[in-house]
Amino acid sequence: MRAAGLLALALAIAATAPAGTAEKRSGYHDLGPQTRAMQDDDDANPAFLWVARGEALWRDRPARADGSGPAARSCQDCHGDAAAAMRGVAARQPAWDEAAGRLMNLEQRIDRCREERQGAPPLPAEGDDRLALAALVGLQSRGLPMAASGEGPAAPAAQLGRRLFHTRFGQFDLACAQCHHGAAGQRLAGSPIPQGHANGYPIYRLEWQGMGSFARRLRNCMTGIRAEPFPAGSDEALALELHLALRAAGLPVETPAVRP
Questions:
Q1: Backbone phi and psi for residue 182, each to the nearest 5 degrees, phi listed first
Q2: Which positions ≥6 away from 60 have C-beta within 8 Å?
Q3: I want to staple 232 with a disulfide (CB 3.0 to 4.6 A). Which of 101, 191, 202, 215 is the partner?
Q4: Considering Cα of 181, then 182, then 184, then 190, what sign does the dihedral take?
Q5: In this model, does residue 17 exceed pLDDT 70?
Q6: How confident is the model at residue 19 (pLDDT cuts 50, 70, 90)?
Q7: Is 221 one of the catalytic residues?
Q8: Model-level pTM?
Q9: 75, 176, 179, 221: which one is catalytic?
């Protein structure tokens, strides 16, 4: 977003304080017809290049971190067919992990499985391999309702995420809620402001000409309002991801989604 446009939006929000849109609405419905058609057609959706890569990685045995050769087992050796084994997994993320004693998102779970079960090194955070495996797993929940839980041990993170969503940040003094709730449905530089539901990650963004994680999109938003981004994987980033997943509850998973 351009600085002048964001500043104008901030002033407009402060002056009018609109009530926001009551109906929960996926960003898919704010897409132009060509972009919507791209997401709908698996043969035209560029994110399926990453899905295909994820399918190959699912079957492969990665090299061990100690250099002793390939892992003894692939993802498929442990879990079987991804379509059956991973059905519904992404719809529940991020989630509290009892073994780790902390909230974890899908990408972190993939890395932990690689390190603990395969002896392989973690994948680069925005690397194609990590995004490919996350896209493959996410695809298996496509069409299922978002169903993350903010109960039990995840409750403090859910509360933190909600607080962060309503906290003003950066030089423009804007909160997530001001744009994606209060101003949702308005237009900025000719483009509609979405409600900001995180129901399609990892996504293919036309602006990026590539795939990206929720952490990358959050970083984009925060730098756009001239704020210091939360470190990827931090308690704050995960809490905000959980809040957005809870906020999108009931919306269908669209992974891998396409956005402008």
A1: -65, -40
A2: 74
A3: 215
A4: negative
A5: no
A6: very low
A7: yes
A8: 0.91
A9: 221
